[in-house]
C-alpha cells in the first residue's frame, strides 16, 4: 500500500513538473495608433540585441584569450589565482579582478566593493580546495572564459581589453 502511495505521489510530482519547463507566449496586439512597422516580428532583431561590432569584439576577446593560452599567460594567471586563494590574500585577488565582476551572482562594481565582501565570502574552504586542486596544464578556453573548477564554486577569468582578469567568482 505504501508503495502505491509513493508511486502515485511520484507520478503526480512528475506530471506537475512537466508544465514548469514550458515557455509562456506573450501575445501582443497592435493598438489603433501603432504603425505596422513598429510591430516587431520574430525575424527582426531586438532593439537591445548586440550589434555586429559588439559581437566581433567578443569574438576578438576569445581570439585574444586563445593567443594568451598559446603564450602561457593563462597558466601564469591561474597560478596567481591559486597563490592568492592559498594565502587568502584579498589584495592580491582584487588586483587580478576585472571590474565589474560577479561574485556569487551579485555584481561588484569596483575594488572597494570587492574588498568590503571580506575573506569569509571569497575564501570559503570549499572554494579554496577547488582552486588548489585545479590542474593548470589542463585549463581550456571557452567563450565564457577560463573556468577554474568544474562546477560552483569556481573562478572564471578571461581577456578584458587585452588583459586577463577575473570576471566571476561563484
Shape call: globular
User: Helical content, roughly?
Assistant: 40-55%
Alpha-beta content class: alpha+beta
Portion of residues in beta strands equals 15-25%
Count every helix, treating DSSP H or I runs of 4 or more residues as helices. Answer: 7
Rg for CA atoms:
23 Å
| Order of strands, widest sheet | 2-1-6-5-4-3
Secondary structure tally: strands:
6
Order of helices and strands: HHHHEEHHHEEEE
Average pLDDT score: 74
What does this molecule look like?
This protein has 170 residues and is of the alpha+beta class. 45% of the residues lie in helices and 17% in strands. It contains 7 helices and 6 strands, in the order H-H-H-H-E-E-H-H-H-E-E-E-E. Strands 2-1-6-5-4-3 form a 6-stranded mixed sheet. Strand 3 and strand 4 form a beta hairpin. The radius of gyration is 23 Å and the shape is globular. The chain starts with a helix and ends with a strand. About 26% of the residues have low confidence.
Question: Keywords, please?
Answer:
170 residues, alpha+beta, six-stranded mixed β-sheet, 6 strands, 17% strand, globular
Task: Put the structure in a nutshell.
The protein is α+β, with helices and mostly antiparallel strands.
Amino acid at each position: 500500500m505504501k508503495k502505491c502511495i509513493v508511486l502515485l505521489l511520484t507520478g503526480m510530482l512528475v506530471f506537475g513538473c512537466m508544465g514548469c519547463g514550458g515557455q509562456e507566449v506573450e501575445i501582443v496586439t497592435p493598438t489603433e495608433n501603432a504603425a505596422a512597422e513598429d510591430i516587431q516580428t520574430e525575424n527582426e532583431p531586438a532593439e537591445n540585441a548586440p550589434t555586429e561590432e559588439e559581437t566581433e569584439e567578443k569574438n576578438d576577446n576569445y581570439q585574444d584569450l586563445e593567443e594568451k593560452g598559446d603564450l602561457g599567460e593563462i597558466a601564469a594567471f591561474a597560478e596567481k589565482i591559486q597563490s592568492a586563494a592559498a594565502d587568502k590574500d584579498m589584495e592580491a585577488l582584487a588586483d587580478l579582478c576585472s571590474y565589474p565582476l560577479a561574485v556569487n551572482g551579485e555584481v561588484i562594481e569596483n575594488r572597494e566593493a570587492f574588498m568590503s565582501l571580506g575573506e569569509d565570502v571569497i575564501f570559503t574552504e570549499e572554494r579554496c580546495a577547488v582552486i588548489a586542486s585545479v590542474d593548470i596544464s589542463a585549463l581550456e578556453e571557452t567563450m565564457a572564459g577560463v573556468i577554474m573548477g568544474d562546477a560552483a564554486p569556481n573562478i572564471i577569468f578571461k581577456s578584458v581589453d587585452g588583459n586577463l582578469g577575473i570576471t566571476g567568482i561563484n
